[in-house]
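Sharing in case it's useful to others searching the archive later.

Someone asked me privately for the predicted structure of Granzyme K, so I'm posting the question and my answer publicly. Question first, with the sequence:
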Amino acid sequence: MRNRIVIDNLAHVAFGGFLRSKDISVEIVGGKEVKPHSKPFMVSIQANNRHVCGGVLIKEKFVLTAAHCWGSLQDKQVNVVLGAHSLSKKEKSKQVFSVIKHIEHPTFKTQPQLNDIMVLQLNQKAKTNKYVAVKKLPRTNADVKPGTKCTVLGWGVTEDNSTKPSDTLREVTVAVIDRRVCNSPEYYNRNPVVTKHMLCAGDKNGGKDACDGDSGGPLICKGTFNGIVSGGQGCGIPNKPGIYTRLDDKYIPWIKNIIKSKA
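And my answer, the predicted structure tokens:
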């Protein structure tokens, strides 16, 4: 399964068993720019001042993202940027924090990619306002029904053969696809297996998807934060929809315990 982080190699990079070639589209397919500062919970996670992954502010001092992102963050200066619309402009709304601890899910695996979820603890509390706000976790364990329209957000790359992320925050609408369909021979053929702790979402004709730089960002369905961008094969390819870590009763108590223990 390919991860959806920003990478530096323009030629060929292996993503969890799938190979990304330079001639594969790497854009947040079918997306559009969001209204500036309309998603105040969005986070840009940066390594050496370069965007790598998205994330969500779930408490003033905690960010939720994908665990596989840490592979591109470790041994670098990691900052979390809140209140941003443009990554390049000096917006007064921005708040920048360092990460003092990263907590991957204890059963996170890369081959195959499972339990792809991580909490980042910031060096201090964010100041919430109209530009920076906390996004609540789901209140129930209810699954997301197939066909549900959801929104994916991120600063993922926007041009073929590019490793440069979008300067402004973008969104794309995708539909949740039944896990039985995603695991069928016509789709992923159980490689990877889409479990009940994952969501599968895209467009039956392709052309709408998250991609490089969007990992760790949210999947929001009817206003609820239901999933985290994890991976998929290619970007916007028919029958190869995005795969998301589903926020359910396997992960929510774990997240809450971390916040409580670090408070």
